[in-house]
TrEMBL record:
Taxonomic lineage of the native organism: Bacteria, Pseudomonadati, Bacteroidota, Cytophagia, Cytophagales
Domain of life: Bacteria
Species whose genome carries this gene: Hymenobacter algoricola
Designated name of the protein: Uncharacterized protein
Length: 73
């Protein structure tokens, strides 16, 4: 349960989908790659306006530099 005080200001309804996508993306790396298709389907249903961006970010990429080290760790 979240108990920290909320930041000062009002909630902008236009930013809620982006915030939701950020929360979803925070769990992206804990999913197994064979589940990425299902994960994309779920995220795309929740955020249809971000479909292209989600797909772009979830595409397979070659690790570079520090990413290679992080995968080994």
């Amino acid at each position: 349960m979240l108990t920290i005080e909320p930041p000062q200001g009002i909630v902008c309804p236009a930013e809620l989908p982006v915030a939701s996508a950020v929360l979803d993306a925070a769990c992206f790396e804990v999913h197994e790659p064979h589940n990425y298709n299902r994960l994309f389907q779920v995220l795309h249903q929740r955020h249809p306006q971000l479909g292209e961006e989600l797909h772009y970010l979830m595409r397979p990429q070659q690790p570079v530099g520090a990413q290679s080290v992080m995968r080994v760790a």
